[in-house]
Each structure stands twice: as C-alpha cells, then as structure tokens.
Specification:
Oligomer: single chain
CATH superfamily of the largest domain: NAD(P)-binding Rossmann-like Domain
Order of helices and strands: EHEHEEHEHEHEHEHHHHHHHHH
Number of strands: 8
Distance between the termini: 47 Å
Number of helices: 15
Largest sheet: 8 strands, mixed
Strand order of the largest sheet: 3-2-1-4-5-6-7-8
Radius of gyration: 19 Å
CATH class of the largest domain: Alpha Beta
C-alpha cells in the first residue's frame, strides 16, 4: 500500500498527546477524525477549534472531532493515544464497532500490569485481525502541537507497512523514522518512564546534576539488559525510542514521570505526587521489575522505584540501598 493510501486517519483519544498527533497528521496532509470520550470536548472543539487539553493552538478544519467510534469506520489507519492500562478496553470497543485489517498504531508507553503485555501484544489480543504498530520517541505534546521540530519512530512487524505509515504521517517538522522492531520501540518507551521517575527523585532530593547523570547512565544500562532479554534489538534501544526518549524524559520537568519523581523526592506520597495527572511509569515500574526478576535481569533502579511507589521504602532508604550496592566493574 502506498503512502497516498493513508489519507484519512483516526486518532482515538483527545488528550494533549492525541490532539498533538492529530495536528501532526493534518500537517502531513491527512484528513483526521479525532475521537473523544467526553461530549464536552467534542463540542468545545467544534465551537472554538481548540482542544481543552492542548489550549492555545488552533485546530485546522482537516481535524473533525467525534464522540462516536462508528465515525472512524472509513479511516485508513488509526492512532490510539490512550494510557496503556486503558488500551485493551478501547481496542475491544473498536473491534466491536469497526472492520478488522486496519493498521492500529499505539502511542502508549507502558506495560499492562495485569498481563505483562506490551502495546502491540494488547492490540493483537483485543482486536484480532487488526495490524498492530507502535509510535514512540522523544516528544512532548506541546512541542508537536506548536509545530516544533520533533523526531520519533514508528515500528511494525511488517517493515513495508511501517515505512508506508511513516511516510504518510511525516511532515517537515514531524519526522518519523520507521522500524521493523516494534518490541524494541515499545520497551524503550515503557522503561524510560521508570527511569524518568528515578531521575526526578534524584533532583527532588537535592543530589544535583552529577547524580542525575550517573543514574541515567546506569538506568540506561538496565534498559538495555531488559530490552535485549525481551527481544528488542540493540540498535533500536540506542535510537530515538530508547536513548532519545530517556534523554528527554529524564531532563525536563515537562515530563509527567520526571515531575512525579520530583514530587516524591521532595517528600510527597505517591498519591500526592500524582496530583491527578497520569504518570505511566508509576504503573510500569512494578510489572517491569517483576518481569526482570522472572528472567534474572538486574534492574536495581527500576526495583527501587517500584518499592517506593508500593510504599515498601522511602525515597531516602531506596537511594541509600542503591548507593550501598557492591563496587563492580562497569
């Protein structure tokens, strides 16, 4: 299928990131159907041409908001921009409303707690016949929405499909690299959120930039061990969706996961630190640590984050335990 075949794109989820991806698709020349669960969001977009979760950015007429999944039936491909823990439910609803054999691109960055499934596995189970793909990389919704230069990776098991989708959705300011390694892409996106929480804790404790740099470096070594054990390609983990996303998420308070960790480091409880905002890493850390133990992979930073979130250790105790680990060769 040529890139020109993907001219009508459905975006499921009108949060900040889903709206930003709808804008990116429209700038690439696509007609976009943006689905929102909340009728008020659909009405607000129709009335003001702005999305409540991404204010201050006008939406072009190529983006049409809808509250009905049935209105996505004619789309050539779907981008599903919902949290990982909600992905299975929305895919089951899509499967009941839409025909199969449509590419379904997940923008989630996490691991399903109940099953240990990554995004493409969730799609495959919840919507038999759909073609799973994953979009991930260093990207904030506000930057994409404003049209600032951003580069991400789109991966599918079918390399030709990944290339066609990447070409169809790319624009001068939103560059999409394609990959045939969806597992590596989704592992990078999930694990970096856990590392971002750890980086935020480090800064929240006042340990400084040198400590953050050391943590990020050692955390990335954990990510690579975990990724390779679960089938990710080393080159993918070193790319945009791995190292690139780690750099962004661990360095900026715009990252919800970094902000969550920062609040933990400053003394907030896990519930207080969330502040009503979603931090995917808080859900990912426990299952990632469990999956690492199952394969006897050393991930002490991820395990420490999981322990803090579970209330099994305070942040200072968790950091002290990390610092007390035996000296070893790097």
């Amino acid at each position: 299928m040529s890139p020109r075949a993907y001219r009508e794109i459905g975006v499921v989820g009108a949060g900040a990131y889903g709206t930003a991806l709808a804008l990116a698709a429209a700038r690439a020349g696509c007609d976009v159907r943006l689905w929102a669960r909340d009728a008020g969001t659909v009405a607000a977009i129709g009335r003001t041409r702005q999305a409540p979760r991404l204010p201050g950015i006008d939406l072009p007429e190529a983006i049409r908001a809808t509250g009905s999944l049935d209105n996505l039936a004619r789309c050539d491909a779907l981008i599903v921009a919902v949290p990982t823990q909600a992905l299975r439910g929305i895919c089951e609803a899509l499967a009941a409303s839409l025909p199969p054999r449509v590419p379904v691109i997940s923008a989630a960055k996490g691991i399903e707690q109940a099953s240990g499934r990554f995004a493409t596995g969730i799609i495959a189970e919840a919507w038999p016949g759909a073609t799973p793909a994953i979009l991930s990389g260093p990207s904030f919704a506000a930057d994409i929405g404003r049209g600032l230069p951003t580069a991400v990776t789109l991966a599918a098991s079918d390399a030709a499909l990944a290339q066609a989708l990447a070409e169809a959705l790319s624009s001068p300011a939103f560059r999409i690299y394609h990959s045939a390694d969806p597992r590596g892409v989704e592992i990078g996106g999930a694990a970096k959120n856990v590392l971002a929480i750890a980086a935020g804790i480090t800064i929240g404790l006042g340990f400084g930039e040198s400590a953050r740099a050391a943590l990020v470096a050692r955390g990335f070594a954990e990510l690579r061990r975990f990724g390779e054990a679960y089938g990710g390609e080393p080159e993918t983990l070193m790319g945009l969706s791995g190292l690139g996303d780690v750099v962004l998420s661990c360095a900026s308070a715009q990252s919800r996961n970094f902000a969550y960790g920062l609040a933990l480091g400053q003394g907030s409880s896990p519930a207080e630190a969330a502040g009503g905002r979603l931090a995917e890493g808080a859900f990912t850390a426990p299952i990632l640590a469990a999956m690492a133990r199952a394969k006897r992979i050393e991930t002490p930073i991820a395990a420490a984050v999981a322990g803090v979130i579970a209330g099994e250790a305070g942040v200072r105790e968790a950091v002290a335990a990390l610092l007390a680990r035996p000296i070893r060769a790097e």
